[in-house]
Amino acid sequence: MSVPLFIDIEEGNQVLELRAYLKSLGAEISEENSDRGLVTDLLHVIEASNICWKELTSENELESVFNSIISLILIIPPEKSENVVVSFCEKLAKSPPGDKRATVRVKLLNNLFHGIEEKSGHRYIVYTHLLKVAGQCDLLSSVKTDLNEVKQWMKVWDVSTQKYQNLLRCLHDALQASKQTEVATKVMIELLGTYTEDNASQARDDAHRCIVTCLGDPSTFLLDHLLTLKPVRFLEGELIHDLLTIFVSGKLDQYNDFYKNNTDFVNTLGLSHEENMRKMRLLTFMQMAETQTEIDFDTIQQQMKLGEDDVEPFIIEVIATRAVRCQMDQLQRKVNISSTTHRTFGRQQWQLLKEKFTQWHEHLNIVRSHLGALTPPPV
Fold first, then answer.
1. By C-alpha distance, which of 153, 175, 172, 154 is closest to 164?
2. Alpha-carbon torsion, ordered 91, 93, 96, 101, to 10 deg
3. How far is CA 149 from CA 48, 112, 154, 189, 281, in A?
4. Is the dihedral of CA 135, 55, 84, 104 positive or negative?
5. Contacts 24+ apart (CB under 8 A), 20-29
6. Nearest to 127 by CA among 86, 69, 99, 187
7. Residue 122: helix, strand or coil by DSSP?
8. Spatial contact of 244 and 223, defined as CB atoms under 8 Å apart
9. Would you tell me the crossing angle of helices 181-192 and 161-177 to the nearest 10 degrees?
10. Which residues lie closer than 8 Å to 136 by C-beta, 6 or more apart?
11. Is the Cα dihedral 100, 101, 106, 112 positive or negative?
């Protein structure tokens, strides 16, 4: 990788020039190299590099200095460079109060990430710090966050399960900070899937966060699969599990009762009661649509606890989610249901699906036999 350097000379002299330059800015560092080698010298330079953020106003100057440090890091053998990589990343991740140059920090971490050999586990170190900085400063668009690609990296870098879990937590937090709640939800579910029966009890905090993330995601309506996850099962009997169960199969009245009795708990989760009500209305309507082909406005108003003028906007919102296929008949004051997404998918739903496929197969056979009757026999 080619990056603009502070000064393009032999590495030993480059370290000398960096030390002298940092000292001229006011850093507490000697101008002489130590006799302990490049690694120790670089650690000294990195420690003193904080002065650059204070004294340099030009982003080009900042990039030149830090890219020179990166170029020196990249020539150190991987087996000797871990401490240097960690120190450099930690320095860049600690943004001083009021600093508005997060874009430079993200760019520099990206330079180091792409400069390190693709199969090196040191990329894991850089990537976790990159997520932290980019997530805090709304610059995640500059970072690759595709979950499938991240999973491939984990295999290539050969990291432990514990490190993978830590990376997923970092990725989740960055996505949440960037308002990418739908992707963040998928990341948390992937995280819980990394636990086994033996260590699922240790995942309590992750399971708790996963539930809160899913409940708070305005586009996530199907939640029954969470109840099958081992870490979530260990929360059974706790308020968070009770709340999840309501969102999986309960109705609006049940949520209202829960909130009335546990208002402080719901508020401490960081969830919006108004958004919870919105989602529970949609979920309750989905459940009603499973067994009915039409629902009148009065029933919707009563079941959803809506004002008379709020019924039609609610139906429009239902249609927009595509969770229920329906048409609004304003003259008859009713909704005609075509189909709905089932909130839970168990044995009964599999049986219905089997029956539909069987009917479909039979209809195709009838069509084929009719087509065969229309085809003239061969001469």
1. 154
2. 110
3. 35, 19, 9, 16, 36
4. positive
5. 21/65, 22/48, 22/49, 22/51, 22/52, 23/48, 25/51, 25/52, 25/55, 25/56, 26/51, 26/55, 27/51
6. 86
7. helix
8. yes
9. 160
10. 95, 102, 177
11. negative
Q: Which residues have CB under 8 Å from 204's CB, separation 6+?
A: 231, 234, 235
| Residue that is written with structure tokens 């082909």 in the block | 293
As given in the structure block, the two tokens for residue 323 are: 């969770």
Nearest alpha-carbon partner for 59 in 97, 106, 11, 98: 106
**DSSP helix/strand/coil, 334:** strand
Amino acid at 36: R
Q: Is 56 helix (H, G, I), strand (E, B) or coil?
A: coil
3-class SS at 8? coil
* pLDDT in 10s for each residue of the chain, 379 residues: 444 444 555 666 788 889 889 999 999 888 776 666 888 889 999 999 999 988 988 999 999 999 999 999 999 999 999 999 999 999 998 876 566 888 999 999 999 999 999 999 999 999 999 999 998 888 999 999 999 999 999 999 999 999 999 999 999 999 988 888 889 888 999 999 898 888 888 888 999 989 998 899 888 888 888 898 889 999 999 999 999 999 999 999 999 999 999 999 999 999 999 999 999 999 999 999 988 999 999 999 999 999 999 999 999 999 998 889 999 999 999 999 998 888 875 554 445 545 566 777 677 777 777 777 776 666 5
3-state secondary structure 267-329: HHCCCCHHHHHHHHHHHHHHHHHCCCCEEEHHHHHHHHCCCHHHHHHHHHHHHHHCCEEEEEE
Helices (H), the chain: 11-25, 38-48, 50-55, 59-73, 78-93, 102-115, 122-136, 147-157, 161-177, 181-192, 204-216, 230-233, 239-249, 252-261, 263-268, 273-289, 297-304, 311-321, 347-374
Tokens of 94: 């600690």
For residue 114, give both structure tokens.
């792409």
Q: Please, what is the angle between helix 122-136 and helix 78-93, to 10°?
A: 10
